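Now for one specimen:
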Amino acid sequence: MEAKQVRTINGAYQEIISADPCTAISKNAIRQAVINGNIPSRQAGRTYLITVEDVYKYFTGDTKEE
């Protein structure tokens, strides 16, 4: 089983920016998707923890389960 990359919203955004500097995905768009429950997350205090893979799945429309 491969470990997933767990990040904060800012960390996930930075990971996406480093992979694609011209991305159309904004940090605010990720935050809103997390708050609305569209991207699975866990909270550690006030910080949301998400996986980069789930962010890509949401924004690419890839919703099929593994």
